[in-house]
Every structure is written in C-alpha cells, then in structure tokens.
C-alpha cells in the first residue's frame, strides 16, 4: 500500500481556490488519512515512516549545510528529497518532517489552492507555511487522540508533550487550537549521519522542548 499513500492523501484536495478554513480542515483530514495508511493508532506517532515511502528520500544534514533553516523539500531526480536539520532537537525534527511532507502533498496544486489566500505572493507564502505547520500538528497530535488522553486525566502541557513526543510549545498551541486551553493573544496572532534516518524522529531521553518551526526554502 505504501506506493499509493501520497496519491490517496492528495485525492482529498479539491482543485479550486480554498478559504483558510477549508485549507485547515483539509489538512486535518489529510493528516488523519496519513496516520491510517501508516497504521499509526496511538501516540507517539512514528513520523519517520515517511522516510520509507517510495520516491521519498529523507536526509538529515548538519545545520551549516542548510543555512540555518530547519528543512526543505524539492522534487529531484525522480523522487522527493526532504532535508532536515540534524542540529535541531528531536521534537523539532519530527515537526519539520511533518511540515515538509505537507509541502510534498500540496505541490501539484499549490498555484490554484492558495490563490485566494492573501493579496500578495509573500502573504500567500506565509499562509501556506502556517497550513503546513497545522498539518504537522494534526499529524503528531491528532485531535481525537489528544482528547482521549486528556480525558484520562493527563492535562498538563509537559505530560502531554512527553506522551506525544512534541515540544511543549507545539502542544500548547495545539491544545488552544482544539479548545482544551484558552487562547492567548499571541496564539490568536499566530494561527550523526550514519544513523538510520528513522532514528532521528524517535523519542530521545532528556529532550528539551523547542518552538516548532515554520521553515521552507
């Protein structure tokens, strides 16, 4: 089934200009289908499975080679190349991989689906990055999973972040997005290379939380 995952998830995208509300809703549906097709049913998501999809190559490179950005994706030599900053924290690498996978999914439709999101190319680019962040949050912290864990009594941001293997900053934003925490004014404004690639996206002992990225080449 792996060879059809990208095609199946892309099929959820309507070929017309989207409103921001529609784009976020579709991103959440895409994330849910991605998890289903990757057979992920509980936290923490093994997001490194993206690196094993056909025609997707994930590289983890030193930050100096990326010019300080967290990652980028591009079509190259018949496959998608996704490059992640090795020097970022484990939680940030996981978020960046989810963010870049959304760019891969949207690439064939990008000129049309975001054409109504903003009055300039810069604004459309900024909103597209926010949508990719939203997809990554939905992928790593699915709404239904988070509410189930919340209902068991695990309601502190740190405990939830550890359960889902994300940063506390990312968890705080997600909790506000789905209504489990009250929004803040800031949130309202924001809306070793020899290791196997998947190892870079697993839980690491003593991980330090970091702010999630919104990066793209």
Topology of helices and strands:
Layout: H1 5-10, H2 20-37, E1 56-61, E2 71-76, E3 79-85, H3 90-106, H4 110-113, H5 121-140, H6 143-151, H7 157-164, H8 168-177, H9 185-190
Parallel strand pairs: 1-3
Antiparallel strand pairs: 2-3
Q: What is the percent of helical residues?
A: 40-55%
Please count the helical segments.
9
CATH-defined topology: Arc Repressor Mutant, subunit A
Largest sheet: 3 strands, mixed
> In the CATH classification, which architecture applies?
Orthogonal Bundle
Low-confidence stretches: 189-193
* Count of all domains: 1
Structural class estimated from helices and strands = mainly alpha
Number of strands: 3
Sheet-strand content, in percent, reads 5-15%
Report the end-to-end length measured between terminal Cα atoms. Answer: 30 Å
Molecular structure report:
This protein is mainly alpha-helical. The protein has one domain: Orthogonal Bundle (Arc Repressor Mutant, subunit A), CATH 1.10.10. It contains nine helices and three strands. The chain has a three-stranded mixed β-sheet, covered by helices on one side. About 2% of the residues have low confidence.
Quick tags:
single chain, 217 residues, mainly alpha, Arc Repressor Mutant, subunit A, globular
Task: Summarize this structure briefly.
By secondary structure, this protein is mostly helical. Helices cover 45% and strands 9% of the residues.
């Amino acid at each position: 089934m792996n060879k059809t995952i990208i095609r199946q998830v892309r099929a959820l995208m309507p070929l017309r200009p989207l409103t921001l509300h529609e784009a976020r809703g579709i991103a959440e549906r895409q994330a849910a289908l991605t998890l289903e097709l990757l057979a992920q049913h509980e936290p923490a998501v093994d997001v490194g499975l993206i690196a094993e999809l056909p025609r997707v190559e994930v590289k983890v490179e030193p930050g100096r080679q990326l010019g300080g950005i967290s990652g980028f994706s591009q079509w190259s030599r018949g496959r998608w190349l996704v490059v992640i900053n090795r020097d970022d924290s484990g939680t940030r690498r996981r978020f960046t991989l989810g963010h870049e996978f959304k760019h891969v999914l949207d690439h064939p439709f990008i000129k049309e689906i975001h054409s109504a999101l903003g009055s300039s190319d810069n604004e459309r680019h900024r909103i597209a990055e926010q949508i990719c962040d939203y997809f990554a949050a939905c992928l790593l912290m699915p709404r239904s999973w988070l509410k189930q864990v919340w209902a068991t009594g695990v309601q502190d941001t740190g405990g939830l972040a550890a359960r889902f293997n994300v940063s506390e900053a990312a968890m705080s934003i997600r909790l506000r997005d789905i209504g489990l925490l009250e929004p803040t004014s800031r949130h309202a404004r924001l809306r070793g290379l020899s290791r196997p690639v998947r190892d870079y996206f697993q839980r690491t002992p003593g991980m330090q939380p970091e702010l999630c990225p919104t990066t793209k080449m």
